UniProtKB/TrEMBL annotation:
<dbReference type="InterPro" id="IPR036186">
    <property type="entry name" value="Serpin_sf"/>
</dbReference>
<feature type="domain" description="Serpin">
    <location>
        <begin position="11"/>
        <end position="362"/>
    </location>
</feature>
<protein>
    <submittedName>
        <fullName>CBN-SRP-3 protein</fullName>
    </submittedName>
</protein>
<dbReference type="GO" id="GO:0004867">
    <property type="term" value="F:serine-type endopeptidase inhibitor activity"/>
</dbReference>
<dbReference type="InterPro" id="IPR042185">
    <property type="entry name" value="Serpin_sf_2"/>
</dbReference>
<dbReference type="Pfam" id="PF00079">
    <property type="entry name" value="Serpin"/>
</dbReference>
<dbReference type="InterPro" id="IPR000215">
    <property type="entry name" value="Serpin_fam"/>
</dbReference>
<dbReference type="GO" id="GO:0005615">
    <property type="term" value="C:extracellular space"/>
</dbReference>
<dbReference type="InterPro" id="IPR042178">
    <property type="entry name" value="Serpin_sf_1"/>
</dbReference>
<dbReference type="InterPro" id="IPR023796">
    <property type="entry name" value="Serpin_dom"/>
</dbReference>
<comment type="similarity">
    <text>Belongs to the serpin family.</text>
</comment>
<dbReference type="InterPro" id="IPR023795">
    <property type="entry name" value="Serpin_CS"/>
</dbReference>
Length: 362
C-alpha cells in the first residue's frame, strides 16, 4: 500500500549523495528499518518527521506493519540468495532504554539496544564484531573510537547481499573495454559481454533498463542506463517513484546484446547529514523527543555501510537453462543493444522494494 512512498524515500536519499562523480551504494530499506525502530521510541514532531520522510501518509500502525512485514520476509531468501541485515541501537553508559521499547524493537525489526562505554576500545571492537559476523566479514570496520566519541546514542547499520543469477551469463566473455566517466575520463574496466540472448528489458524516453533475476525470483537486479550518454544526474532528476515502478513492472524478455561492467562497491555514509536534508532533524537535536526509548536522549549520529558485488557468477536453474536452448542462428530479429559504458544507476529489489540503490561511475 505504501510501497511508492518507500521507493520515493530511497530516490530522495540517493539525490542527497554525490551521485554524479563517484560510485556508491546504500540500502534505503535497511536505513528505513533502523529509523523504524527509532520511530517506535519517538514522540511528537520527532516521530512525525521520520514518518513523513519514510512513509508519508501512513498511520503509526500502518508504518509499523509495513516495515516489520518487509523485515521479516526479506530474511527468507531461498535458492542460494542470502540477505543479512544488522540493526542495533547502542546506548552510552548511564542511559537505560525503556524495556517496552526493547521488546517492540526486537519483535518488529529483529533489532535490540545495548549499552556500552563509548570511551572504551571494547565498545569499538564489539560494534565491529557484531557487524562483521552479520555480514560474513564483508564489513569489518564500521566504527572507530573517534566516530563514537561523545555520542549519547549510535545508530549502526550494515547490510550484505549475495545471490546467484537465475539465468547465468551463457557464452559470455570477460574483457576490458572503455568506460566513460561523468567527467569525460575514459578508463578501462572489465565488462561481461553476452551477445544475441534473451534478457529482461524495459525502457522509456529517458532510460534503458536491464533486469537480471536471481535464483530466488523475489529478487531482481536492474540497471538504469540513460539513453543519452553522461546525463545520469539530469536523468535522476526526472526519476520519481512512479517512473521507477513503471520501469520495474514493464519487464519483457528481449533479444539483446548485453555489455555490463563487473564491479564491487563498498560505501560508508554519515546518515545524520543526509537525513537532516530530508527533514529528519529533531532526533539529532536537543529538541528530540525519544521518551519512548529513554529519557533525555537524542541520536548523536548514524553510520550506514553497504557492500555489493556484481559479477558473472550464477545458478544454473534447470528451467532457465532449458529455456535458453534455442540456437542463436534461428533468431531473425535484430537484438537490442545494451552497452553500459557510461554512468548508470542500479537497484537490487525485493518484491519491488528497493533494498539497494547505487551508482556506477567506473
Amino acid at each position: 500500500m505504501f510501497l511508492e512512498a518507500e521507493r520515493q524515500f530511497g530516490l530522495n536519499f540517493l539525490k542527497t549523495l554525490p551521485a554524479h562523480n563517484e560510485s556508491l551504494v546504500f540500502s534505503p530499506l535497511s536505513i528505513a528499518l533502523v529509523l523504524s525502530m527509532v520511530h517506535t521510541g519517538a514522540r511528537g514532531r520527532s516521530k512525525e518527521q521520520i514518518g513523513d520522510a519514510l512513509l508519508n501518509g501512513a498511520s503509526d500502525d500502518q508504518f509499523v506493519n509495513h516495515f516489520s512485514d518487509v523485515n521479516e520476509k526479506i530474511r527468507s531468501g531461498t535458492n542460494g540468495v542470502e540477505v543479512y541485515v544488522a540493526n542495533r541501537v547502542y546506548l552510552n553508559k548511564g542511559f537505560t532504554a525503556n524495556p517496552s521499547f526493547l521488546a517492540v524493537a526486537l519483535k518488529n525489526y529483529g533489532a535490540d539496544a545495548k549499552t556500552l562505554d563509548f570511551e572504551s576500545l571494547t565498545a569499538v571492537r564489539e560494534i565491529n564484531t557484531f557487524v562483521k559476523e552479520a555480514t560474513k566479514a564483508k564489513i569489518t570496520d564500521i566504527a572507530s573510537k573517534d566516530s563514537i566519541k561523545n555520542a549519547v546514542a549510535l545508530l549502526v547499520n550494515a547490510i550484505y547481499f549475495k545471490g546467484d543469477w537465475e539465468d547465468k551469463f551463457d557464452g559470455f566473455s570477460i574483457a576490458d573495454a572503455d568506460f566513460t566517466t561523468y567527467s569525460g575520463h575514459v578508463k578501462k574496466v572489465k565488462f561481461m559481454k553476452e551477445f544475441m540472448w534473451d534478457r529482461g528489458y524495459s525502457s522509456d524516453d529517458i532510460f534503458q533498463v536491464l533486469h537480471l533475476g536471481y535464483a530466488d525470483q523475489q529478487f531482481q537486479f536492474s540497471v538504469f542506463l540513460p539513453k543519452e550518454r553522461n546525463t545520469l544526474t539530469k536523468a535522476l532528476e526526472k526519476l520519481d517513484a512512479r517512473r521507477f515502478k513503471t520501469l520495474l513492472s514493464n519487464v519483457r524478455r528481449t533479444f539483446m546484446n548485453t555489455q555490463l561492467p563487473k564491479f564491487t562497491i563498498e560505501r560508508e555514509i554519515n546518515l545524520k547529514t543526509h537525513l537532516e536534508f530530508l527533514g529528519i532533524t529533531d532526533i539529532f537535536s536537543d529538541s528530540a523527543n525519544l521518551s519512548g526509548l529513554a529519557k533525555n536522549i537524542k541520536i548523536s549520529g548514524g553510520v550506514h555501510k553497504a557492500i555489493i558485488e556484481v559479477n558473472e557468477d550464477g545458478t544454473v536453474a534447470a528451467a532457465a537453462t532449458m529455456a535458453k536452448a534455442v540456437p542463436m542462428s534461428m533468431r531473425m530479429e535484430t537484438p537490442v543493444d545494451f552497452k553500459a559504458d557510461h554512468p548508470f544507476m542500479f537497484t537490487l529489489s525485493f518484491m519491488n522494494h528497493p533494498i539497494f540503490l547505487g551508482v556506477f561511475n567506473g
